[in-house]
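Quick one: structure tokens for this chain, please?
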Amino acid sequence: MAAFTEVDNVASIGVDRGGGFGSSGVSGALPGSLSSGPASFRPSDDRPHAGGAVSAIGQDSHAFTRYDPEKPLILGGIKLNDRLTLRANSDGDVLLHALTNALSGITGRNILGGPADELCQSGTTDSAAYLRLALDDLTAAGYCLTHISFSIEAAKPRLAAHIQEIKENTARLCGLAPAAIGITATTGEALTAFGRGRGIQVFCVVNAEPRD
């Protein structure tokens, strides 16, 4: 059972011999009085993360389905001739979807599952259009992208020969130099469904800075 003591706004929290928490042992100062309520923080302006550089992570995954020559595998806007098709209402570009979700992590407005679905229903299945909405939100929030990192988990296709082309096209879509984009790929030792060839999973980390 946890026990807290307060002396001159310093709380001492210890671990007793029974494995619980006691009033002796390891102690540390907590900012402010425990009885004064939670601290509040206010940004200095209206940007979602005012004050400096920000980062966010995005993820997306799609399962493989029966190959459809009318719906080839697309990663980073590049069509790969690997006789693979991902199950999706859109073009299934899982890499751009992860990037779009990462940008939403900065702006606070989800594109996938909202505006992207509306575009898809109206016939726009190009994931680059969804990415553009997220980039527009980032600009409106007062930020510009500085770096993108992708981590792809999949047993297929073999991506080594495609990495540079995917990187260059993604850079073009985002207005970055290819050197500002990193892409790694792994099978994850076949520990997950993605590593066993049932689909593709992508994690994306984005960094952005306030515009001057």
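The radius of gyration is 23 Å.
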